[in-house]
Design goal:
The complex is a heterodimer of chains A (254) and B (273). Chain A has 254 residues and is α/β, with parallel strands linked by helices. Chain A has nine helices and twelve strands. In chain A, 34% of the residues lie in helices and 25% in strands. The model of chain A has no long low-confidence stretch (mean pLDDT 92). Chain B is of the alpha/beta class. Chain B is 29% helix and 23% strand. Classes of the chains: A alpha/beta (254), B alpha/beta (273).
Chain lengths: 254, 273
């Protein structure tokens, strides 16, 4: 008797949402033998597009559809279903040895646009600030621009462009570097900065005291296949996917 | 009308592709079609083999597979000079084009293997790089049992070797001091017989006689590769402009079929359908 083929569920898009699906995978697959989750990146817009085109089952996204994607959806006459996951915090983060612990939103903006270029201006050593940023195809980039840098401002052109875990690795290796990203990708090798004296915690995120937050979502076809439907339902279930979300500092959507 | 003439895709792309599709109107000959596929060199061996399999099923379709790199393939695709592009990474921010459709065909991954008696269970990326480039030569420096490290490698030109260099050496080269082997099975056998050895294999070539190392504390398991947790893995994408029609669409559909996915597993990559 031929062995049954593994059935794959395809996920595409946001590097922020990625850790949630990675954490869900072993649990989900244990409960659903014969199923496997496949995941690749490409950013939020690519996540939307993959579902619109039918090349992925689920899009991982960290913002509403961009205008471009909305037009594409309209042109193709395709409707999407959205499953909100919750809110994450975006933090600026540095090497653990960096003496700086908090920056105001205005100073953060100045650092990332290049107006402030030396750690000495921030109470640190006399050394140039090495700025790292995810690429502009990532929702994280868009959100930081919208919430911190300012819609009309531009991130300094000499910022090093690095995505996801690699960005975290680089910061962990360089005491003069600063980057930004979701708390979902932070690790013991880096330290998140407070914004105006407020640290990003589950509580400050839920209350809005921590100002830099955005919504994370899973998108799928308006009427997804049963297998996709099953995953989305499992992920929404507080006893199943909810347990995964609770491991991260994500305020669940409710 | 099904004949395509392919022009040099501009100076930037640097790919010149020509077809010699032909038909004789009025004659009772089956029409020939051409499908042009180009892009990431590292995907060529797999896609070429799938093209040969496809040819058996569709003898009137010529699938021409070229290299040139993922970026050049994308450019050629956007200019309409080719039917399908090959990319072994995500599109960069500057390349992103929402008119281009990308389908995941498979994943590629490389494992680092040592002798089962080696006390180390994993290494970080910097350490792996240092070892394969020859900068670190003693297991003691890595927290293992002191003694010389013997690096095992495939020969220049091997796709597996290119994978290792891409993933682990960031463009660097395997040390000239490495012992070289012609095949994965020869490499596996050699590592299994040498307590000082370190080598590299695709998942499908692992044997119980060698021990894979975790990389950055992530073990090389299929599930970790599938969800991008294992550091030395990458996506293998087929790109098209919108949904491909005709023979190009048939070939793309074939690549995602159970038969082709089984073949891809045989070729040493990880199927995703």
């Amino acid at each position: 008797m031929a062995a049954e083929r593994t059935r794959y569920l395809h996920f595409r898009g946001s590097s922020t949402v990625t850790p949630l699906i990675q954490a869900a995978s072993p649990l989900y697959c244990r409960e659903h033998p014969g199923e496997a989750l496949v995941l690749t990146g490409g950013g939020t817009d690519r996540g939307y597009k993959a579902v619109l085109e039918g090349t992925s089952d689920v899009g991982m996204v960290s913002s509403e559809m961009s205008e471009q994607i909305a037009r594409l959806a309209k042109r193709q006459g395709v409707a999407l279903s959205t499953s909100p996951i919750g809110y994450d915090a975006l933090v600026a983060f540095v090497h653990p040895q960096n003496p700086v612990t908090s920056l105001s939103q205005e100073v953060l903006r100045d650092v990332f646009t290049g107006r402030v270029r030396n750690w000495m201006d921030l109470g640190g050593p006399d050394a140039p600030i090495a700025v790292l940023s995810p690429s502009s195809s990532q929702g994280t980039f868009e959100a930081w621009r919208r919430l911190v840098i300012g819609e009309r401002a531009v991130i300094r052109p000499d910022a090093q462009i690095v995505d996801g875990r690699e960005l975290v690795r680089r910061i962990a290796a360089d005491p003069l570097a600063i980057g930004y990203g979701t708390t979902l990708l932070m690790g013991p090798g880096t330290r998140a900065l407070e914004v105006g004296g407020v640290a990003a915690t589950f509580d400050t995120l839920a209350s809005g005291a921590y100002p830099v937050r955005r919504q994370l979502l899973l998108v799928a076809a308006a009427e997804p296949e049963p297998r996709v439907q099953a995953f989305l339902a499992w992920f929404k279930d507080p006893a199943k996917g909810g347990q995964v979300i609770r491991q991260f500092d994500v305020v669940p959507a409710e | 009308m099904d004949r395509r003439s392919f022009v040099k895709a501009g100076g930037a792309a640097g790919i010149a592709l020509a077809t010699s599709a032909f038909s004789w109107p009025g004659m009772d000959k089956p029409r020939r079609y051409s499908v042009l596929v180009a892009g990431a060199k590292t995907m060529l061996p797999y896609v070429t083999k799938l093209a040969e399999e496809f040819r058996v099923l569709h003898p009137n379709v010529d699938i021409v597979v070229e290299g040139g790199g993922g970026g050049a393939g994308l450019l050629a695709l956007r200019r309409g000079a080719i039917d399908l592009g090959l990319m072994e990474r995500e599109m960069a921010a500057g390349e992103e084009d929402l008119a281009v459709r990308s389908v995941l065909m498979a994943k590629d991954a490389i494992g680092i293997v040592v002798h089962p008696s080696n006390p180390l269970t994993g290494l970080g990326r910097e350490a792996i790089r240092a070892v394969f480039e020859g900068a670190v030569r003693d297991w003691g420096a890595l927290g293992g049992t002191p003694g010389p490290i013997t690096v095992y490698s495939r020969r220049l030109g091997s796709a597996t070797r290119v994978s290792l260099e891409d993933f682990a050496l960031g463009g660097g080269e395997v040390t000239a001091a490495a012992r070289q082997f012609d095949s994965a099975s020869a490499m596996a056998k050699a590592v299994a017989g040498d307590a000082s050895a370190i080598g590299y294999l695709a998942l499908k070539h692992f044997t119980p006689a060698v021990r894979p190392l975790a990389v950055e504390e992530v073990a090389m398991e299929r599930s970790a590769i599938l969800v991008d947790l294992y550091p030395y893995c990458r996506p293998l994408y087929l790109l098209s402009k919108g949904e491909p029609a005709g023979p190009a669409g048939d070939f793309l559909a074939y690549c995602l079929s159970a038969a082709a996915q089984d073949k891809l597993e045989e070729y040493g990559v990880i199927p995703v359908y």
